[in-house]
Specification:
Elements (H helix, E strand, L loop, with lengths): L1 E4 L5 H13 L3 E6 L4 E6 L7 H5 L4 E5 L19 E3 L2 E3 L5 E5 L6 H14 L3 E3 L17 H14 L3 E4 L6 H7 L2 E4 L7 H8 L5 E4 L6 H13 L5 E5 L17 H8 L4 E3 L1 H5 L2 H14 L3 E5 L17 H17 L5
Parallel strand pairs: 7-8, 7-14, 8-9, 9-10, 10-11, 11-12, 12-13, 13-14
Antiparallel strand pairs: 1-3, 1-4, 2-3, 5-6
Bound molecules: phosphoenolpyruvate and manganese (II) ion.
The site of manganese (II) ion has 5 residues, from loops.
């Protein structure tokens, strides 16, 4: 349930409503918009009487949110949420480009990639140090060594870092190195991990599970939001379908639908969404045109030698072309790069 205060409501009136709701055993999430304050009531709201709440001074109306996700819903937060990372705004007018290797493999590989994506115009550097691999015999990432290389690259190239955290016990370690914590597709419903990243004050890039519905994905975001971390960025990375010609099926529908249902920013990952480097640029165009707030792209200087996801990695020159195309598209769409 959400309580929409009218635009003339005084701070005392708002506080009186909060105190009342809390005295009934609920938690309140307050969202101060440019126009009005909205109070999200967290807990089993069925016994709550809406008319009673509407009688409070300063209350405009009380709305039961029909979706099972509340804090993630547009009703709770009508304006787009903007997640700020070192001066970069994700979810605003700007399109944000995250790029880098699937895995951090060596200093040379990471730095060569970072220099190239920075030069091309990327805003944020990606790279996995802890890798979720299907096979236990496949390269698992450099772990702590990978995080240290990411930190070095962050300082040298002035690029914030997005990197995956695989386990709840690693959250505090990874949070010391990352500017954005990535939750991978395979962990989208790892509720202990979602709670753990909900407790740190770092933005979270929440990838869609490969078999997850839009509602399950938004409920995963709700776990993080309900824990008190409001800086959630969604990432569409393709879902499993009957189709085997591509690694996944990039769900273009998800982008405008998420924008209707939720205020959270949405980033598109056409690298995992297609699994093929030659489809990354066209699917990026589609995602931006559909309303994505940015892209996350795998780039490798020598894709044929990559220790993971070489087939879907762009060479740096192709990434530079993608940035140029995105710049032109941004203009047409009234956004900027
Ligand atoms: C990745 O970003 O390299 C990755 C493992 O992504 P996903 O969780 O979407 O498969
Ligand atoms: Mn990858």
């Amino acid at each position: 349930m959400i309580v929409i205060m009218n635009h003339r409501a005084t701070p005392e009136q708002i506080q009186t409503v909060i105190n009342h709701v809390e005295s009934l055993g609920y938690r309140v999430h307050r969202s101060d918009g440019t126009e009005r304050t909205i109070l999200g009531i967290i807990g089993d709201e069925r016994p709550l009487d809406t008319e009673n709440l509407e009688a409070f001074e300063g209350v405009e109306r009380v709305v039961r949110v029909l979706h099972p996700f509340k804090l993630a819903s547009r009703e709770f937060h009508p304006e787009n949420s903007v997640v700020r990372v070192n001066g970069i705004e994700i979810g605003g007018d700007q399109l944000v480009l995250m790029a880098g290797p699937c895995s951090v493999e060596s200093r040379e590989q990471l730095f060569e990639t970072a220099a190239a994506v920075k030069e091309a115009g990327a805003h944020i550097l990606r790279g996995g140090a802890f890798k979720p691999r299907t096979s236990p015999y496949a390269f698992q990432g450099l772990g702590l060594k990978g995080l240290e290389l990411l930190r070095e690259a962050r300082e040298k190239f002035h690029l914030p870092i997005v990197t995956e955290v695989l386990a709840p016990q690693d959250v505090s370690l990874v949070a010391q190195y990352a500017d954005i914590l990535q939750i991978g597709a395979r962990n989208m419903q790892n509720f202990a991990l979602l709670r753990a990243v909900g407790e740190v004050q770092k933005p979270v890039l929440l990838k869609r599970g490969m078999m997850a519905t839009i509602e399950e994905w938004l409920m995963a975001a709700e776990y993080i939001l309900a824990q008190g971390n409001s800086r959630v960025i969604l990432c569409e990375r393709g879902i499993r379908t009957f189709e085997t010609a591509t690694r996944n099926t990039f769900d273009i529908n998800a982008i405008p639908l998420i924008k209707q249902l939720s205020h959270l920013p949405v980033i598109a990952d056409p690298s995992h969404g297609t699994g093929r480097w030659d489809l990354v640029i066209p699917v990026s165009r589609a995602a931006i045109a559909a309303g994505a707030d940015g892209l996350i792209i795998e780039v490798h200087p020598h894709p044929e030698q990559a220790l993971s996801d070489g087939a879907q990695s762009l060479r740096p020159d192709r990434f530079a072309s993608l940035v140029e195309e995105t710049r032109r598209l941004a203009e047409v769409l009234g956004r900027r790069l």
